Amino acid sequence: MNFVEELRWRGAMHDIMPGTEELLNKEKVTGYIGFDPTADSLHVGSLAQIMTLVRFQKAGHKPIALVGGATGMVGDPSGKSAERNLLDEEALNKNVEGIKKQLSKFLDFNAGENSAELINNYDWMKEFSFLNFIRDVGKFLTVNYMMAKDSVKNRLETGMSFTEFSYQLLQGYDFYWLHQNRNCKLQMGGSDQWGNITTGTELIRRKCNGEAYALTTQLIKKADGTKFGKSETGNIWLDKTKTSPYKFYQFWLNASDVDAKTYIRIFTMFTFDEIEALEEKHADAPHERHLQKAVAKDITIRVHSEADYNSAVEASEILFKGSMEDLAKLDEETFLDVFEGVPTFDIKKENLSNGIGVLDFLAETTTIFPSKSEARKMLQAGGVSFNKQKFEDIAASINLSNTLNQKYILVQKGKKNYFLCCIN
C-alpha cells in the first residue's frame, strides 16, 4: 500500500487536494504537520498527527514536524469558540522544547535522505516586521478569501480579534517558507486545518507560481460523540508527569469495543492481517478485551517504555487479584493513581494508636456503612476486606498494624466498592 491507500484503509483520510496522491506515488515528497505549543507536552489528541508523519516517513517520504513558536503567540481560531490566552516567549520556548523531546520518540532523525526534521517557525518569523509582513504576504490574499474560511465564519457572531484573523496568513506563510527553503510540497493536518492549509497552497500559487498540495485526516471522536483525548480528570498527556503511565494505559484499556476498532487502526503500526486476526480473536471472546489490551500495550510502550507498561499492568492486576504484600510494593504515586476517585476518609494517626473497634471504624469513624448492624452483617458474610485481606472478626480493632506503610488503609466492601482511608 502507498501512503494514501494506507490512510484510507485505516479510516484516517478526510480531504485530499487533487493531484496529491499522484505526486506521492511519483516522487519522494517533503511534507509537514504543525504542532501548537500551548503546553509543554502533547496529548493523545496529537497522536493521530504524529502517526500520520510516522507513516509518511515509512512510505519513503521526508517528514517535517513544525513547532509553532511564532504562531503559538497568536493562537489558532480553528475549532475554537473563544479566543485563547496568549503565552509569553519564555513559556512558549519551554513548551517548544518539551514537544521536540516527545516527537523525537516517534520519528527517525537519522534516516538518510528522508530523515525527519524538527523546525520552529519562530526562527524565520522573529525578524519579520509588521510592515514587511503586510506588504510581502498580506497583499496576496483578499479579505474576501480569508472571510470565507470556516474558522473565520464560525466566529463572526461572537467576534474575532485581528490577531486571530491573521493566523491563517501566518500559517500560510509557514508553508510558503518551507516550500521555498525546504522544497516542501505538502502540508497535512486534522480536518479542522483544511482552511489554513489551503491558504498556504494559495499563497504559494500567487506569490511564486508554485505547486503545493494538501491532505487532512479525520478528527477522532468517541463512538458516543464525546471528545477524544479527555478523561474525567482532563487531557491525557504524553508526559508521564502530567498523566502517569498507569492512567495512560487505563485510558486505552477502558475504550469501548467500537472505539478500540478505530484506535488500533489509527494509533498503532499493526498490519492489516494483524488487525484482522485481533478482531476475530476479540469477536470470539469480547469479555477478554483483546483489542483494548493490544492497543494499550502498543501505545504505552511507544509513548513511555516497556517497563512503564509492565508496571501499569501489574498495578491493574493488583486491583483485582493482588494481596496486601502486592499493594505495599506499589510506589505511592501509582497506588494513588489506581484508587483515584474512590471515596476518601482522613483519619488521625493518634486515633489508631489505641485501636478503633472495627464496627465503629466502618460506621462512625468512616461512613463506609450507614450503621453498625449493616457492617456486622457484611463482615460476617465475608464481604469486607482491609488491604486486600478478608476481615471477619467483628470484635477486633483496627490500629496502625492494619495500615499500608502507616499511611493508608484500603477498605473493600463487596466486590467493587473501594474506600481509601488516609492516615495523617
Short description:
With 424 residues, this protein is of the alpha/beta class. It is built from 21 helices and 15 strands.
What does this entry look like structurally?
The model has no long low-confidence stretch (mean pLDDT 90). The protein has 21 helices and 15 strands. Helix 12 crosses helix 16 (306-321) and helix 20 (358-365) packs across helix 21. The protein has three domains: 3-217, HUPs (Rossmann fold), CATH 3.40.50.620; 230-338, Tyrosyl-Transfer RNA Synthetase; 344-423, Structural Genomics Hypothetical 15.5 Kd Protein In mrcA-pckA Intergenic Region, Chain A (Roll). Helices cover 46% and strands 15% of the residues. It has a six-stranded mixed beta sheet, sandwiched between helices. Strands 9-15-14-11-12 form a five-stranded mixed beta sheet. The protein is α/β, with parallel strands linked by helices. The chain is elongated and about 90 Å long.
